Amino acid sequence: MKLLPAWITKGYLRLIDPVANWLVKAGVHPNTITVIGTFCTLVGGIIYATGHIKTGGWFLGLTALFDVLDGTVARRSNTSSQFGAFLDSTLDRLADGFVLGGLAIFYATSRLHGSVPLLIIALLGLIGAFLTSYTRARAESLGLDAKVGLLQRPERVVLLSAPQAFFGLVFNGWVLAIIIFILTLTAWITVFQRVAYVYTATTRADEAEARAEDEARPRFWARQRSPRPLLKGE
Predict the structure, then answer these.
(1) Any catalytic annotation for residue 92?
(2) What is the secondary structure of 33-84 as a DSSP string?
(3) Distance between CA atoms of 176 and 110, rounded to whole angstroms?
(4) Which domains does the chain show, CATH number per domain?
(5) What is the C-alpha separation between 232 and 101, in angstroms, rounded?
(6) pLDDT tens, residue by residue, 102-141
(7) Of 39, 95, 146, 178, which cross-links 139 as Cys (Cβ 3.0–4.6 Å)?
(8) Exactly one of 88, 92, 96, 214 is catalytic; which is it?
(9) Alpha-carbon distance 219 to 214, whole Å?
(10) In the chain, what percentage of residues exceed pLDDT 70?
(11) Contact at 8 Å (CB) between 101 and 93?
(12) Within 13 Å of residue 1, how many CA atoms lie on the same side as its CB?
């Protein structure tokens, strides 16, 4: 189960197809797109920190296409690389930190909307966002694809931009508060789902390995022996 329906993802990918094709023809390197996209997200996080929630939402929503374009351009131009994947993953963590950190600063400094509970929830959301990425990366180092869970990166990007763009701080900021709560809750649910997935996969692998070793071990007691001759009187 995912928060973002598949038809929205496919529709968005079709929408950015012409942009991706133009970037490929122009010879723009995907790493350049990654860096530009990250810079835009950092700016969006700063806008959130200053309390301009609606402006920040629109800015992040309009520049979110960089988050998809770098991978699309890399595949179509055959410029995918291990360093590119590493750079993209690293800068994604920086971007998440700035956006959620910006919201945390907003709740810590706003005179009208300042809230300690929401500050704590935003910080928990920041930790959860990092853990969702770390659990997948650590699972991949074990040879497992842990791309499971309720909240993937596309859903996180949407939750961090679209609702704020349309609602801002309406209803005394309750829409923003609900979005942050949903973001934090689903992030931690995803963390537990990935931990459970890796636990199940590794436990089964360990059990299979133990069975294979047990079957391969010589069993002297299992050899058939000739019957002992009967002694006199038996």
Answers:
(1) yes
(2) HHHHHHHHHHHHHHHHHTT-HHHHHHHHHHHTTHHHHHHHHHHHTT---HHH
(3) 14
(4) 6-219 (1.20.120.1760)
(5) 91
(6) 999 999 999 999 999 999 999 999 999 999 999 998 998 8
(7) 146
(8) 92
(9) 9
(10) 86
(11) no
(12) 5
